[in-house]
Structures are given as structure tokens and as C-alpha cells.
Specification:
The chain contains 27 helices and ten strands. It is of the alpha/beta class and about 575 residues long. The strands form three sheets. A five-stranded parallel β-sheet has the order 2-3-4-1-5, with helices on one face. The protein has a three-stranded mixed β-sheet with strand order 8-9-10, sandwiched between helices. A two-stranded antiparallel ribbon has the order 6-7.
């Protein structure tokens, strides 16, 4: 007889042989004993968790000559023929290769015929989610009201792809991933049956690589047995599965603790050169840190560890880390793992994660964090201030508080510090400012605001041009926050200059300044240039244009009746016409 793979030879033939899935076994066995089996079942779950095997065991228990029973005898003719796959009343149907409606109609036509020799005619439809919509519709009516002798067992790894009308007519059982302990025990049974010595650590590596699937675990075990020969060794399991030994992770973790980044990067480079997958390395690293956390918790959790073997050096390593540090490492690797799944540069992501872990502030065991010196100084100053306040309270000295009048001033100062106007560039504008330029801009200002969006024009509602030269003009803002928002919105500033150029022909730059800063700049410019003195004679003024600042700057040099008119009616309602 030709050689058969382990997952075929050691497929469970009774409920007691099944690993895990306790909730499924108990429910089905109770229904068999009470003779309360239904007509349709849905087995869903990850691959290799026993869905098809459970369906065959259930079919044998239904038709066993010892029925009603919670376990098939596996000795009668019916059980043996079902095990061999030759029983005519137990039909296995692969929906992946027979998804058309014609195949489903052929099955439905034969459902009404009574079983040839068994009590029930059992239909096991594997990968049922692969059926076409027409095939589901053809199956629907029969599944709802089948003959009393028919039982349907649907198996799928993707139950979300099944129509709700199909799911609602079935008794659903969700198969879970098997634990590493269940897989380990099953592999021990297999190796003991073939009398092959083994290293238990190697079996743990295989169980971890199987990721909860018994079929994957037995297939990997089959490979390791073929590779190793006389004994299943740890090195053989690591080589076949592509996993990494615990000693490598110990060295890398110790290097991270010592912040020996060069050693960490060299080890990672060697692992990748040996063909290890960076995504798999990150997964194993997470498992390693998880085992360290279990080791910190207590010896009663040692049985749950998947990668680490309880040894003194690992216990010492676990105690050298604070729990928060290990949690941080796991969090960094988990986030990196998600990013690696959508990238072709997985090595770079893993290197970045290891660098981030190495540069993270270390914490000593016992959950006591190493305090940053700067933070320590701040805490010391705060403690000193608190002690002074407590002494003042005990001595009856009233605490100094800000008056309501001082609070707005302080808030205003804080707001002023938020934005600093380009004083140097504004001063250059003032040196070349002329009356004609500012009047040209003011004449177009209202029309420019009308062409802007309402949100933009609202920011400029309390603003006005105050000085203009041939290269730039200055806009004064009443509120600093509006000045900040306009100055930071480069698109709005560019739009303003474009509208101004279209309306007035002036291609000039827009500079923003808050009101209080404008007062300071203007006062400094007047003082430095002596604009409060008497103006020179008219000839000199005509020969050389003088700086013009549109605000209270020129009040001292204006005519008395103009000053009085502006005081009475306001500058905006006064227009000076020169004869």
C-alpha cells in the first residue's frame, strides 16, 4: 500500500478522537442520544479544524447499527463502509468543483429516494460557499422541507458568503482554532504510534507554525519526520517551518535591553539572509514578549508559553524588564505588522520597529519608570511652589490673584505673542510709501472684498490698508487671530494680490500686521525719520516724494480745520480735494 500522509492516516474516526471543539461534540452527542437530530447542519470555521471529519463521524453515528449511540462503533459494516468512503447513502459533494445548478438539481432529484441500507441518507456538501446563486436557490426548498430520511451537512470556511435564507434553515456550529496544547497532544499520539523519539520543544514550534489548524500541524510534522530521520529535533523543526529559536530571540532582546543597536541589526540581517520572513519574525517576536509577560506573572502560567522553555536565563531576562516596556514592544510590533502586510519593504518596517524599541526610554523591573531629568526638575519646582503657597496660607498672607482688569490684558499679551509681523519688510514699505499708492488700494479695497468668499471677506472685515509702496502694501488687523489666519493662508493672500492687480494695475505684495504691533512700528518709524517736525517747503516736497502713512501719523502736519473735521465726523467720511 502506498504511503499516506499523517493528516489522512490519523483523521479522527470518533468523537473521542477529536481534538478540541468540545461544544460541538457535546451538542451532537446529546442530540444523538435523545434522538433529536435535525435535517440540516452548518459547520463553519478555519481550515483544518475538523469540519469534514466531524461530519463523517456524525454520519456514522446516525447510521450505526448500534444506534442510538453517542459514538460510532467503527466495527459494523455501515461504519466501516462510511470510513472507507464507499457507502451509497453518505454522499460527499465538493461544491468548489461542482458549483453549477445542474449538479445541484441532480442531487435534489435523488433526495426523495429512500436510503439503500442505512437509516439516513446524509449529504455532506464541502466548501458550500462556492455554489452559484442558482444552485443555492435550487437547494433552498429542499433544505427547508427535506424528506424525513435526508440530512444535509454543509461545511464552509466563509459563512458570510452564504445567503441568509440558507443559514436560517440550518443548525449552525462554529469551529474554533485549536489551541497549541491540543495540537501538541495530537502530535505526541502520532509520534508515539510510530515509535519515533521527539523533542517537545520541536513540537511546540510546529504547533505555533500551524496557527490553530490540525491538518497544517500534521502536514508540517510529516515534513519534519521525513527530514529528521531517527528523532524529531528542534533544529529540524526550525528549518522546516522557517521559525526562529528562542536563543536567537534571547540574544536580540538582551541587545535591545543594552541598547546595542548594531548587534540587533546584524542579527536581523543574518536571519533575513538565511531566508526568514520579516513578517514571521515579527510574529515570533510578539510571541516571545508575550511569554516573558507570562513568566513575570508566575510559574502557574508556564504551561501556556508557546516559544520559551522555562529556564533560569529566561526568568532572569523577564525580571529585567518592566511590564510597561514589554507592552510597548508588543504594541510597536503589532502596529508594524499591520503596515508590513500592505508593503513590499517589510525588512525596512521591521528594522524601523526595532530601532524604535531600542530608543524607547527603558524602565526598570517593578513598574518604576526612569524619570526624565527635565521632568524631575519641573516636579521639584512645582513642589517648592506648593510648599510656599502652603506656608503663606498658614501665615494668613492673601494669595496674589489677577484682577478682572488684568486678565484681559494678559490674554491680549499672550495672543500678541502668537504672531509676529514682518517688521523689517513693513519698515521698508513705509520708507517708500506714497499717498497715491494707498489711495489707489483703498479705492479698490471694497470691490476686492466683494469678490472673495464670505468666509474670507469676514476675516478682512475689520482690516484696512494703512501704507503702500510700489512693491508692497500693509494691512492692519483689529484682531490678532484674524491677522494670523490671513497671513497663514497663502492662497488667500495670492488671491488678494491678483484681484488688486486686475482692478488697479498694481502688482504688489500684501503684508499683515496686528493693530498693536502696527502702533509700535509706526511710532518707531516716525521717531527714527523725524516726521513730526515741520515739513520742508513745497518745492522740496514736489521734487522728492515723502513717506505717507494713512492713519493718525500725519495729524500733526495737517491743517487745523482738517483735523477738526476728522475729529467730528471721522476719517472715513472726509475726502480732501486739492485745487
Amino acid at each position: 500500500m502506498t504511503y499516506q500522509a499523517f493528516y489522512r492516516v490519523y483523521r479522527p474516526q470518533s468523537f473521542r478522537d477529536m481534538s478540541g471543539q468540545t461544544h460541538v461534540k457535546r451538542t451532537l452527542q446529546n442530540a444523538l442520544l435523545a434522538n433529536k437530530t435535525t435535517h440540516a447542519y452548518l459547520f463553519s470555521g478555519p481550515r483544518g479544524t475538523g469540519k469534514t471529519s466531524t461530519a463523517k463521524i456524525f454520519a456514522k453515528a446516525l447510521n450505526c447499527e448500534q444506534a442510538p449511540t453517542d459514538e460510532p462503533c467503527n466495527t459494523c459494516a455501515t461504519c466501516m463502509s462510511i470510513t472507507e468512503g464507499s457507502h451509497t447513502d453518505v454522499i460527499e459533494f465538493d461544491a468548489a468543483s461542482n458549483s453549477r445548478v445542474e449538479e445541484m438539481r441532480e442531487i435534489i432529484e435523488k433526495v426523495r429516494f429512500a436510503p439503500a441500507s442505512a437509516r439516513f441518507k446524509v449529504y455532506i456538501i464541502d466548501e458550500v460557499h462556492m455554489l452559484s446563486t442558482s444552485a443555492f436557490n435550487a437547494l433552498l426548498k429542499t433544505l427547508e422541507e427535506p424528506p424525513s430520511h435526508a440530512v444535509f451537512i454543509l461545511a464552509t470556511t466563509e459563512p458570510h458568503k452564504l445567503p441568509a435564507t440558507i443559514i436560517s434553515r440550518c443548525q449552525r456550529f462554529d469551529f474554533k482554532r485549536l489551541s497549541s496544547q491540543d495540537i501538541l497532544e495530537r502530535m505526541q499520539v502520532v509520534l508515539e504510534d510510530i515509535t519515533l523519539p521527539y523533542d517537545e520543544t520541536a513540537l511546540k514550534i510546529i504547533a505555533q507554525a500551524a496557527a490553530g489548524g490540525m491538518r497544517d500541524a500534521l502536514s508540517l510534522l510529516d515534513q519534519v519526520v521525513s527530514f529528521s530521520g531517527e528523532k524529531v529535533e528542534l533544529e529540524d523543526a526550525l528549518l522546516v517551518t522557517g521559525s526562529i529559536g528562542q536563543d536567537v530571540f534571547y540574544d536580540m532582546t538582551e541587545a535591545l535591553h543594552q541598547k546595542d543597536i548594531a548587534s540587533v541589526m546584524a542579527t536581523l540581517e543574518q536571519l533575513i539572509a538565511d531566508g526568514k520572513d520579516p513578517l514571521r519574525i515579527s510574529e515570533d517576536f510578539i510571541t516571545f514578549f508575550r511569554d516573558l509577560l507570562l513568566m513575570q506573572t508566575g510559574a502557574q502560567l508556564y504551561d501556556l508559553m508557546e516559544l520559551i522553555t522555562p529556564e533560569p536565563k529566561f526568568e532572569q531576562l523577564a525580571q529585567s524588564f518592566a511590564q510597561d516596556t514589554l507592552y510597548h514592544y508588543i504594541d510597536v510590533l503589532a502596529k508594524t505588522q499591520q503596515e508590513m502586510r500592505f508593503s513590499h519593504h517589510t525588512k525596512i518596517y521591521l528594522e524601523t520597529a526595532l530601532l524604535k524599541m531600542a530608543h524607547a526610554p527603558q524602565q526598570v523591573a517593578g513598574n518604576t519608570a526612569t524619570v526624565d531629568p527635565l521632568m524631575n526638575d519641573k516636579v521639584a519646582r512645582l513642589e517648592q511652589q506648593v510648599q510656599q503657597l502652603m506656608q503663606q496660607l498658614q501665615q494668613g498672607v492673601p494669595l496674589q490673584q489677577n484682577t478682572p482688569q488684568q486678565a484681559p490684558q494678559q490674554r491680549q499679551k499672550a495672543a500678541n505673542a502668537a504672531y509676529r509681523a514682518p517688521v523689517g519688510r513693513i519698515t521698508e514699505v513705509l520708507k517708500g510709501a506714497t499717498k497715491d499708492n494707498i489711495q489707489t488700494i483703498k479705492a479698490s479695497w471694497a470691490q476686492i472684498l466683494q469678490q472673495l468668499q464670505k468666509s474670507h471677506s469676514a476675516l478682512l472685515a475689520e482690516a484696512e490698508p494703512v501704507a503702500a509702496s510700489s512693491s508692497a502694501f500693509v494691512v492692519k488687523f483689529k484682531y490678532d487671530i484674524h491677522c494670523q489666519m490671513v497671513a497663514d493662508n497663502h492662497a488667500l493672500v495670492a488671491m488678494m494680490t491678483q484681484h488688486l492687480a486686475a482692478l488697479s494695475g498694481m502688482n504688489v505684495e500684501m503684508l499683515c500686521i496686528p493693530n498693536d504691533q502696527w502702533l509700535s512700528v509706526r511710532e518707531a518709524f516716525i521717531r527714527d525719520n523725524g516726521l513730526t517736525k515741520k515739513a520742508q517747503d513745497d518745492e522740496e516736497q514736489e521734487q522728492q516724494p515723502q513717506p505717507f502713512i494713512d492713519d493718525e501719523t500725519k495729524v500733526a502736519s495737517q491743517e487745523p480745520h482738517i483735523v477738526e473735521a476728522e475729529n467730528l465726523f471721522g476719517k472715513d467720511f472726509i475726502e480732501i480735494v486739492e485745487d
